[in-house]
Amino acid sequence: MANLYCMATLTKPTVAVLGLGLIGGSLALKAQSLGYDVRGFSRDPDTRAAANDAGIGTADSQDELLQQLPDHALVVLAAPLEPVLEMLPKVLDQTPESVTVTDVVSVKSPLRDAAARTPHAHRFVGAHPMAGTSESGFHAARVDLLDSARWVLTLDRRTDLTRWAQVAQIVTATTGQITPASSDAHDRSVAWISHLPHILAETLAIGSDWQPALGLGAGSFRDATRVASTRPELVEAIIAGNPHLDATLGNYIEQLMQARELLRTGDVAGLLTDGHQARRRWEQIKDEALDQGQVIVHLDAPDAAERLIAIGTTGGYVVSCTTARATALVFEPEK
Amino acid sequence: MANLYCMATLTKPTVAVLGLGLIGGSLALKAQSLGYDVRGFSRDPDTRAAANDAGIGTADSQDELLQQLPDHALVVLAAPLEPVLEMLPKVLDQTPESVTVTDVVSVKSPLRDAAARTPHAHRFVGAHPMAGTSESGFHAARVDLLDSARWVLTLDRRTDLTRWAQVAQIVTATTGQITPASSDAHDRSVAWISHLPHILAETLAIGSDWQPALGLGAGSFRDATRVASTRPELVEAIIAGNPHLDATLGNYIEQLMQARELLRTGDVAGLLTDGHQARRRWEQIKDEALDQGQVIVHLDAPDAAERLIAIGTTGGYVVSCTTARATALVFEPEK
Predict the structure, then answer these.
(1) Domain extent at residue B203
(2) Percentage of residues in chain A with pLDDT exceeding 70?
(3) Could you say which DSSP state residue B129 is in?
(4) A276 within a domain of the structure (yes/no)
(5) Mean pLDDT over residues A204-219, rounded?
């Protein structure tokens, strides 16, 4: 495994970006600026023209782009969930064995499942750059948008760790750090930390029986509804398709009912203490991220995938990855 | 009515502050700095000594302070809900008819009810300064803590508008602006905009099934759990005793269940649009507060109380109040 992509590593692989919106466009601009061979495609001729003006070579059709890919290229499906679900099996079918396919969609298990229904599941590595997305379109793309972004790269049963390392190498070389996680762990986590808070914010903003004016002074209301400022189409694109959100919302409703019971019986102190401590723990992980130990994970070790997932679970992340030597440089919290 | 407190207005009334913690202490310091005759009391001798050092005259006992009050004094009960519920009937009993009693507790209807069980309900005006309270104690009090704070002054069936105006005059002269509201409207509003968000934040922080590390990049989680950083004792003091919180939480759970159903059937777009528009309306009220029309409300008009409440409901607020002329200068949103 160690030398499989050695040539690709030395020459920088071709990166083909299908979809040149905010994320795809920014990734293309960044890879381009670092000397990667970047090839883009957008269904929109104006976007293709704008990408050309920005120095990104584009093909006139997706088929043409895929047919002309060199060996060991990386194809990035940079579109929302629904189109990517359609594109993924086709692109896997249309490209040679050495080509790896990734994506930037904010839910991961539906794509893992879509790949699993093809004979090419090992050639897919799911990715989710957790970057701000309040705008959209190539005109909003910036060469530095993804700088220092935290990505999740999925590690599932069928994931080929060599290809995972190839994607990780490009991600860390061009933009940010990587939290390794399984697709299900990713989706459950974002259901709780992102999709659920969106639902809570919308529902709270709508309100029912209050004077808006009184909310002016309430920082708790301001913060709790902030993400409802996001355009509704964008919120729908973010939360739609997460198969774990229904169970997460049910779980949360259950916990609110318990909180209501505690309020009724005057026993709410324990809940408030637990909530306070949980938030503090989160703040500590955030602060400790600045002060962590550096370790090297050998990707050809038999437990490399488990090791990477364990590191992600405890707050560690991959800062660089070298496929030529099959190693990932990882920061993990000090014991 | 117009001249009842004319003398008091010209000479500035005596302000007696029972409880010299963060809010009571800050209010005492501010009134003192503006030349009011301020008299304080705290059960804690060290706090009394510290207040004396800061130039605030203190009595050795609450009874002594109350017995020596001049006519038309204002007594501020600056303690948490439970002690204020005990103090209120006693203080009303112990002070002469011309003395008005107010408070700074974050729920209002239990105090309205406590006053209503005495023959002195007309002498009580509930108040809630919506100011930051992440610290506590006289050592944290600052002369400018309440500057520009938004207060709610309650207007209920038994409220005496002349006394309401006296409290409003002191509040606007010393610190901030006033949203007029009934005690029930206040409690329902803060249940939704403050107490409920606290419960949501605690419950969300505790979580259930997610990798904390993945939350690092999620601004929605950071904002939605921020108030869980507040000390649990303080949160309990804020939310405890609001008789409307149980119904509010039940109402919210109901709305979350509806949201879950909409997610299941793929019809969530309407909810997201409504939530977005509601948050935008709130932002507009906030911005328009800078650009409002100025009107004068004549407090001896028969519909003055209704007029003030209507102004509060639509985002207006009282900026100054003159008991000598029985008028309130009010900003209200332009039609």
Answers:
(1) 187-267
(2) 89
(3) E
(4) no
(5) 67
Do B226 and B207 belong to one domain?
yes
How many Å separate Cα B6 from the centre of its chain? 26
Q: Is B199 in contact with A273 (Cβ distance < 8 A)?
A: no
How far does the CA of residue A321 sit from the closest CA of chain B (Å)? 20
B33, two tokens: 């700095």
Alpha helices in chain B (DSSP H): 6-11, 22-33, 45-53, 62-67, 81-94, 109-116, 161-174, 183-190, 196-206, 219-225, 232-239, 245-264, 269-288, 304-313
Chain B hits for A231, Cβ within 8 Å: 276
Q: Does A219 touch chain B (CB under 8 A)?
A: yes
Q: Inter-chain contact B218–A149, Cβ cutoff 8 Å?
A: no
B171 and B229: one domain?
no
Q: What is the DSSP letter of A147?
A: T
Q: Report d(CA A132, CA B91) in Å as an integer.
A: 55
Cβ <8 Å between A226 and B226: no
**Token pair for B15:** 């302000």
Contact B258, B267 (CB under 8 A): no
Q: What number of CA atoms fall less than 13 Å from residue B51's CA on the CB side?
A: 33
Cα–Cα–Cα angle for A318, A324, A328, nearest 5°? Answer: 15
Strands A57-58 and A317-322, how do they pair? unpaired
Structure confidence at residue A290 as a pLDDT band (50, 70, 90): low
Confidence of residue A133 (pLDDT cuts 50, 70, 90): low
Residue A114's pLDDT band (cuts 50, 70, 90): very high
Q: What is the dihedral of CA B11, B328, B122, B17, to 10 degrees?
A: -50
Q: What percent of chain A has pLDDT over 90?
A: 64
Q: Which of residues 154-193 of B touch A (CB under 8 A)?
A: 179, 181, 185-186, 188-193
Enumerate the β-bridge partners of residue B202: none
Whether residue B272 lies inside any domain: the answer is: no
* ipTM (interface predicted TM): 0.82
| Domain tally, chain B | 2
Looking at the predicted structure, is the pLDDT value of residue A198 above 70?
Answer: yes
- Residue A198 shares a structural domain with residue A156: no
The reply to whether B86 and B224 lie within a common domain is no
CB burial string A171-181: b at 16+ within 10 A, e below: bbbbbbbbbbb
> Could you write out the DSSP letters of every residue in B267-303?
-THHHHHHHHHHHHHHHHHHHHTTS-EEEEEETTSTT
Block means of pLDDT (10 residues each) for chain B, 335 residues, are: 39 92 95 95 96 95 95 96 96 97 96 97 95 78 90 95 94 90 92 92 80 65 89 88 94 96 94 92 71 82 91 84 77 64
Q: Is residue A169 part of a domain?
A: yes
User: Hey, is the C-beta of A261 within 8 angstroms of any chain B C-beta?
Assistant: no
pLDDT score recorded for residue B234: 85
| Residues composing chain A | 335
Residue B288 and residue A213 in contact, taking contact as beta carbons nearer than 8 Å = no
Residue showing tokens 């939480």: B249
Side chain identity, residue A48: R
